[in-house]
Amino acid sequence: MSCEPTNANHYRRMIPQLLEVLEFRSNNDLHRPVIEALELLKKYAHSKARYYDSSEEIRTSMEVKKNYVDSHGQSEVAFAFTHLLGFQLMPRLKRIKVQKLYRPHAGQTNAYPNLEPVMTRPINWDLIRQQYDQMVKYATALRLGTAETEAILKRFSKNPFKHPTYLALMELGRVIKTIFLCQYLDSEAIRREINEGLNVVERWNGVNEFIFYGKGGEFASNRLETQELSVLSLHLLQICLVYVNTLMIQSVLAQKHWQKRLTARDLQAITPLIFSHVNPYGLFKLDMKERISR
Q: What is the DSSP letter of 272?
């Protein structure tokens, strides 16, 4: 497990300062991985070590299987890396009409007559085979945390369209994206699943805009320290809002009346990302009988 080197120049460097004055406890076993992670951060708060000790472990059963993104969150290289890392990239494609399907093999000009308008060249499987070990090498580095995505992409950025491994990643990404496009177009259930997954993200962004209302949700300063404080404060408010809402929802759901009335589908749609009951501007108590002193 690696310590992210970018943390030194990131707002997360302020988290250890919070951990010095805040203490987190929970008797719920489901929360233990979070508590253990916070304890690990606190333990290494002032360490100069680049990597956590190999004996350090955080118990968690979480396994990422799918990542829902909008059109701008997908690319052919992203499709390749997510496939190598063992989970699916699930984008909602805005301009689906301009997407192309790559042919699996050469010499299949008339194999898919109904898809001919959206078909393009065949996949270069030889390139993928030649660079397979290198692609696995980079994916393993990302999985183990021994390298960052930014650092890897910088290695390709000097001349990406001549770097054989980058070209192979793009080619593999075209394979995975073609498979995804076929499934996306064929299955209404997949389209609904992606839309529902993205609705959660967009709802979260909407909550952020509501909380971070000052200056239209933009940073009012170009000073790094001020920006770090703003983002950290925003994250703290996010956590508090979700926590309070969760307690309120649990209290309501504990009532027998609602237990009988709500269906499984209703429960599935409940979210703690609500804020209509929140006043972000504070309260100003005015005594209309008292004259304002000059």
A: S
Both structure tokens of 111: 């194999």
Residue with tokens 């987190």: 24
Is-contact 103 118, C-beta < 8 A?
A: no
Quick: pLDDT tens for 87-128.
Answer: 999 998 888 888 888 988 887 777 788 888 888 888 999 999
- β-strands 88-92, 101-103 pairing: unpaired
Quickly count: other Cβ atoms within 10 Å of residue 41's Cβ: 17
Confirm if 239 and 174 have CB atoms less than 8 A apart: no
User: Which structure tokens are listed for 274?
Assistant: 């609500």
* pTM of the predicted model as reported, rounded to 2 decimal places: 0.63
What burial class does residue 198 get, using C-beta atoms within 10 Å of its C-beta: 0-12 exposed, 13-18 middle, 19+ buried? middle
Query: In 3-state terms, the chain is what percent helix, strand and coil (to 5)?
Result: 60, 5, 35
Strands 88-92 and 66-70 turn out to be: parallel
Provide φ and ψ at 104, rounded to 5°.
Answer: -70, -30
Residue closest to 163 by CA, chosen among 133, 136, 131:
131
